[in-house]
Specification:
This is DUF1489 family protein. Helices cover 17% and strands 32% of the residues. It is α+β, with helices and mostly antiparallel strands. The longest helix is centred in the C-terminal third of the chain and has 9 residues.
């Protein structure tokens, strides 16, 4: 999971990522992932917009990126396909968080651009019962 700061939702992220042209999108982050192998075996980055997880992108590769300050960072090379997922409220966090496969929200059906998130109390109750 990663916060998508500055974007209102998946549509804004897609517009911003157009700057990569036909190349895959890239998100540069400070830390190299500890679970690199898992990420490269079909893992995705799940984007949280304004407290709600709404989309994911498959991680294609990890590239070493040197910043202007000479510090090496991790470039997450992302599939350009932005997949909408069932809306799940998330509390603020820093950095990124790993999701267990069972905790990842399901993809929305093809053609459905959005889904309103459940109220936090209902979402928590469903999660506690193993239904969300």
């Amino acid at each position: 999971m990663k916060l998508c700061v500055g974007a209102e939702g998946p549509e804004d992220l897609a517009v911003w990522q157009r700057r990569f042209g036909d190349a895959p999108a890239m998100h540069v982050t400070r830390m190299w992932p500890k679970r690199e192998t898992e990420l490269l075996e079909g893992g995705s980055i799940y984007w949280v917009f304004k407290g709600v997880m709404l989309a994911r992108q498959r991680i294609l590769a990890l590239d070493r990126v040197e910043g202007a300050d000479g510090i090496l960072r991790c470039g997450l090379v992302l599939d350009r396909d932005l997949v909408r997922v069932a809306a799940v409220p998330r509390r603020p966090f820093q950095g990124w968080r790993y999701l267990a496969p069972g905790d990842a929200p399901p993809d929305l059906p093809e053609g459905r651009a959005s889904e309103e998130p459940l109220p936090p109390a209902i979402a928590a109750a469903l999660a506690e019962m193993g239904l969300r």
